[in-house]
Every structure is written in C-alpha cells, then in structure tokens.
Amino acid sequence: MLVVISDLHFVDGTAGDHNVACDAFTILMEDVLPVAKDKGAKTLDFLFLGDIFDLIRTESWLEDDVPLAHRPWGDPDINAHPEQLGEPCLKVARAILDDIGVKAGEQLAVLRGEHASVKEAFEKLGKPVRRLYVPGNHDRLYLLDPAIRAKVDALLGLTALRPAELANEHVYRSPAHGVVARHGHEFDSWNFEGFGKGGAQYAFTPTDYLRVPIGDVITTELVVRLPREVKKRLEGVIPSINPAVIAGVYARLQNIENVRPVTAAIPWIWHQAGAIGRSASAPGGAVWQGNEKAQVIEAVKAAAAQISSEFMAIPFVERWIDQHDKWGIDEADKLQGLTGLLKLGLGLRELSGLLKTYDAFQRIADRHADPQQRAAFDEPDLAGNDCHYAVYGHTHEFEQTALRVDETGHEKLYLNSGTWRPRFFLADDRKSFVEWKEMTYLVFFTKDEDQGGIGGPQKGHSFHTWTGTMLKRKRH
C-alpha cells in the first residue's frame, strides 16, 4: 500500500506560524493504518512528494547578518554553476532546517511513527514500513548540501537504502502500484529553470533541478519581506502606534504566503489595506486611536512600493529578466507587470480600478492554465502498461482527471496530492478573499491488495483519495 502526501511546507515560524497541527497527522495515521490492515497490504510506503520542508518561506534570509550575497540568489550567475553555492549560504540554510525540525518536531515524530499518539499502532501493524522522499522546489537545497540531506533524511525517517522506485531522485515509479509520481514543479515556468527548454517537455537534467527559479526570489524578497517591512515602518517611523495594532497587521499580512493563485497576492495586499480602512476595530482587537488607521494604510502602500523597486534591482532578477525576455508576452513581462502593480500608490477609492487591472493581467497570465494536467497527459511512463496514474503535487490543488483509456483498456489518470496548508482564494466578485484549510492524501494498492475482502476476487490496481476542507469563522 502506498500513501502519498505533499506540500506540507513545514516552516521555522519567522514568516508566520503556518505549520499544520500535530493532531492532523495523528488523524491521518488513524485513517491509513487500519486500511493497511483491512486491505491486506503487504507493505506500507509513505511517499513525501516534495515541499515538505520550506527553506524559502522564512525571514532568516532577510536578517541584517545575511547580506544579499549570502542568499541562494546572491550570485547573479549562480545558475551557470548551481553546485557551487557558497558555504555562508548553506550555513544559513542548515540553521533554518534545524529550526524547522524544532518547530515541527511533534508533527515529524508522527510521520516517523515515533510519537506517543501513533507509536503503539505502528508496532501492532506488523508490516514493513518505508518512507520515501522526492524533493520539491521549496526544499531544493536538499539537493545541494550533504548536511541538509542527512538532516532531512533523519527528520522524515527515510528508508536507509534508496529503493528501486526512486532510481531517479526526482521521479518515483512503482509498477506494483501503477504509479509514476513527481513533485510537478517541472511544468511551472516560475519555479523550475528547466521548464520547456528546447521544446522538449521531459528533457530534464539533474542540473536543471539545482538551478534557482525566480519563484524562490519572489517568495522571500517580495512575499516574506512585505509584512516584515510594514512592521519595521510601523515600529520605527511611527513609534506612537499601539503595539497590539502593529502585531495584528503583521500577522494578517503574513497570510500572503497562502494566497491562491499566487498572482492574486497583488490585489490581496490592497484588499487588506481596504479591509483595514473599512474596519471599525484595529487588527489585534485594539481600538483605533487618532490617525492610526491612515498610518497603517500608508505603511502598507509605501512598503509595497519600496520592496518592488528593490526587488527589480537585485542583480539575479535583472539577469533573469534579461535571459527570459523574448518576443510577445513572456514570464519576464509578467514579472515586470506584477511588480509594477505593487508600486501603485492607491487610495481606497481606486481599489476597484486596480482589481480591473489585475483581471486583465490575470487573463494573460492564465492563458495556459493547469500545465501540470497537460503535462500528465504526455507523461512518458503512462505510455506503457506498467503505470496508470500520474501523480503530481506542487499546485496545492487536489485534482483527479481522466486522461484516456489506451488500446489495451487501461485507464490513465492524473491525480494531484494537494496541500496541507490554509489557503486564501480570490472570490469571483474580484472584491474579496475567502480562507479555508485543506488536507489531502492519496492511497494506492497493488494487485494483491484491496481484493474486496481477503480471499475475494482480484480487482487489479486500485486507489482511493481523501481531501478535506475546513472553514471556521468567528462568532459575532
């Protein structure tokens, strides 16, 4: 039996306390361990399909003692020799991972089967358990440093010897379960530098996975930095503002990391400014005093304009734009458009106009929606009779799509393993956002498992999926 989960994005907490509660993983084990027993599973494999540890969503890269030169994108030519990442940079990355290991210690203990809530259940299972891992784009540094690799392996309790299913570090293949799986960032032009090179969709090299994608820089230098910069402005330039208000604004803005689609983060910033402007009470539960409301709105606007300008001046970004700027609307143009929107100093009355501008931009950015699903249709391993299910993560969107039935009658499907993080969605009215929490896992069985009851008729490969959503609101 194979259990697939991805995109847990365990963080060190400096950019927001967004780790999934330990109880969620206990519930997962309470669900899947009895299934393994009831379905006659021979073994139990857990496949962690990337972005388990988030080494990018952290303020640690922005500390004063970590200059730009010591960040993963500090060398504008790093993608010409990605394996030569400097020791000062790796030292910071190791410290971030150490902090994640502490912050998410209980959750990781559950996944390893060592936590008190699940230890006895694993001992009684009486079946071999393996834990396997495919790194994603936010845990990319796993590929570049033996110390980080060893730490991640220990935190997840990975199988000591790499099994045959992971002969390729970036692709899991299991004919026994009918599955081919990858993180899926390979088909995201913002998060994989080997995307579509030379027109060959699957011509990936090991070096392609080492290169810094522009998405890493966006995440840290724009998304993570914005709340931090607003907080600094409110604490320094405006020292008289209520500390509870500052803390509330800071915590609210840190949710920008969970906005979907990612490009919606731009109107989300202005939406937050508008929500603050319309609110009778200040973030943090305090009462507005004097001109605090106007000061907060001005701090958000000024911080957004500042960080967008400084982002575009980063040598790596300048080099990336130069290398990706081609004829027509391309990724470089989209990036310039996004940062241009950030620089707009708008009042509350202009918010509706900005959202109209965003809609026009979004139609361009989303002309080729869901590239993972399109890529799954052409997944090479689905061409034969061994694999029937292409499983990707990365998008944070659970998906189950029928691709085709081949000439031998085999059904070919695409499944996405979703995420375990809360998400903010831009509503269809383009005026508001809605948050909910999600949790997804996929389970696949071999031909000798899930036979309709032990000793029943053999059904061949089978699978089931589980995705849950939780939305809670304060009572008024």
Quick overview:
It is globular, with a radius of gyration of 23 Å. Helices cover 36% and strands 14% of the residues. Strand 4 and strand 5 form a beta hairpin.
How far is it from the N-terminal to the C-terminal residue, by CA? Answer: 46 Å
Portion in beta strands: 5-15%
Largest sheet: 7 strands, mixed
What's the overall geometry?
A: globular
Helix proportion of residues, in percent? 25-40%
Briefly note the CATH topology name of the largest domain: Purple Acid Phosphatase, chain A, domain 2
Structure, explained:
Helices cover 36% and strands 14% of the residues. By secondary structure, it is α/β, with parallel strands linked by helices. Helix 9 runs antiparallel to helix 11. A hairpin with a 4-residue loop joins strand 4 and strand 5. The strands form 2 sheets. Strands 1, 2, 3, 6, 10, 11 and 12 form a 7-stranded mixed sheet that branches. It has a 5-stranded mixed sheet with strand order 4-5-7-9-8, covered by helices on one side. The two termini are 46 Å apart.
How are the elements arranged and paired?
Layout: E1 2-5, H1 22-38, E2 44-48, H2 87-103, H3 105-112, H4 119-125, E3 129-133, H5 146-156, E4 172-174, E5 179-182, H6 214-236, H7 243-253, E6 259-260, H8 265-278, H9 292-312, H10 315-324, H11 331-342, H12 351-365, H13 371-377, E7 389-392, E8 399-405, E9 411-416, E10 422-426, E11 433-445, E12 462-470
Parallel strand pairs: 1-2, 2-3, 5-7, 6-10, 7-9
Antiparallel strand pairs: 1-11, 4-5, 8-9, 10-11, 11-12
Helix pairs in contact: 1-3, 2-5, 6-7, 6-9, 8-9, 8-12, 9-11, 10-11, 11-12
